Amino acid sequence: MSVEEEKGLLARADEFLQAFKKGAEFTQELLRENERLRFRTLQLEADQKGEGVAAALAVENRKLAARVEELEREIAEIIGQIRQIEAENNDFAARYVEIEEENNNLANLYIASYQLHSTLDFSEVLQIITEIIINLIGAEEFAVMLVDEKTGSLDAVAAEGISLEELPRVRLGEGVIGIAAGTGENYFAEGPETYERDLLRPMVCIPLKIKEHVIGVIAIYKLLIQKKSFASVDYELFTLLAGHAATAIFSSRIYSDSERKLSTMQGFINLLTT
């Protein structure tokens, strides 16, 4: 091999070596790029997995929110039912109190009626009527006035809170008392809380009637301080007094007259036989 040929061979070897180095460097570069791309791919896959978890959590959150709303609606319905039950319980309790009060009133009415017919003594009948008016109706000042058949006027025979001397004699058909006795109709002044005592114009005037025959009236002028107005049971008591009290008064007066006449006759007989 000549020197020239040897130089040319060395030059090609050097070129080959250079080309090999470049190929090696390019290969190294490709490997690094491949590694970088692979790493990036892994990152992207991880990101995608993260987004999936977030999406799944979002779906779960929406389900939970819907369930919370549903539970809140159920709680609101339950609270509404509880309030409705409480209202019904309050109504039942109020109704129970009313029924208990009505039972007490009926018992009081029965006792009052029984007491009115338990005696034929005129003074005791008036005393029982007075106690009924005080204890059951709650009046503080009132009068019981009876018709005098001879004079056609009304005279007080019993009173509470007012002396008998203060009470005026009233003729039938005159004033509130006379009209109530003449017509047999109850009289109630408007607004008992604003009423001011007027002996000729009572707060309430109840005729004492036996059927349609009026034998007197009950005139009420003042209620007890704790009683501000009339309750429904009071009107039932007024009805009771209008009938039962009148019957008791009438019966006791007849009995008293009979007893007095019997006593007179017995005295006369004793006088004749002695």
From TrEMBL:
It comes from the Bacteria. Residues 54-102 form a coiled coil. The keyword Coiled coil applies. It holds the Pfam family GAF_3. Residues 121-259 form the GAF domain. The keyword Coiled coil applies. Keywords: Coiled coil. InterPro entries: GAF (IPR003018), GAF-like_dom_sf (IPR029016). Signal peptide: none annotated. SMART domains: GAF (SM00065). This is GAF domain protein. It comes from Geobacter sulfurreducens (strain ATCC 51573 / DSM 12127 / PCA). The lineage of its organism: Bacteria, Pseudomonadati, Thermodesulfobacteriota, Desulfuromonadia, Geobacterales.
